[in-house]
């Protein structure tokens, strides 16, 4: 359904990405999808395709510039080597700006590492209209989240050893002091419960609930 494209970052450099959408439907709302730490793999492309079927123009920026892995150690190494500020302020912002050339409104949403980057994008991408965070929190002081004004929907797992319930509570407390109109949900599931390519953590019931809630949130939030 989709194709690989190139788009410009605000600094003029290029970034590749996977774009999915119904042919000719350039006015549809946009959705920038942010990868897990594995890279721009088939599962992320399938997620973009699902969003396209739901009526969005979905763009997954290739933050690792073509690198993909299935090994956790290598994924951790690649994520550790990623400049999060550059990824949010340049790659993700560039993707949002690309979609905004024809889409009136554009959301940003991501999973795991991409969820963390979605929260950073809410602070660094003024053109973004809403965000969907799936089990990710960036390594910054929770007080920073008080500065978020974008509407957000957030999904977290109760048995997550990275985004622990305590960290999620800190995030929620900060967002309550922000101007963000947000919804936050917790699931009796494991980290990465949305990833159907990982049967050891995938939870079909939680995944469907999070997906349906996100589409409903975007329908009422995006113009």
Give a concise summary.
By secondary structure, this protein is an alpha/beta fold. The protein has six helices and eight strands; from the N terminus they run βββαβααβαββαβα.
Word description of this protein:
Strands 1-2-4-3-5-6-7-8 form an eight-stranded mixed β-sheet, sandwiched between helices. The longest helix is centred in the last third of the chain and has 18 residues, at 204-221. The protein has helices at residues 42-53, 72-80, 84-100, 113-124, 165-176, 204-221; strands spanning 3-8, 14-20, 30-34, 57-61, 106-111, 130-134, 152-159, 182-190. It is built from six helices and eight strands, in the order βββαβααβαββαβα. The protein is of the alpha/beta class. It has one domain: Rossmann fold, CATH 3.40.50. The model has no long low-confidence stretch (mean pLDDT 97).
Gyration radius, rounded: 16 Å
The largest β sheet comes out as: 8 strands, mixed
Task: Based on the coordinates given, report the CATH architecture.
Answer: 3-Layer(aba) Sandwich
Helix content: 25-40%
Subunit organisation of the chains: single chain
Straight-line N-to-C gap: 25 Å
Strand content: 15-25%
- Provide the CATH superfamily: Alpha/Beta hydrolase fold, catalytic domain
Strand adjacency order, main sheet:
1-2-4-3-5-6-7-8
- Report the average pLDDT across residues: 97
Instruction: Tell me the overall shape.
Output: globular
List how many beta strands DSSP finds.
8
**pLDDT under 50 segments (min length 5)?**
none
CATH topology label: Rossmann fold
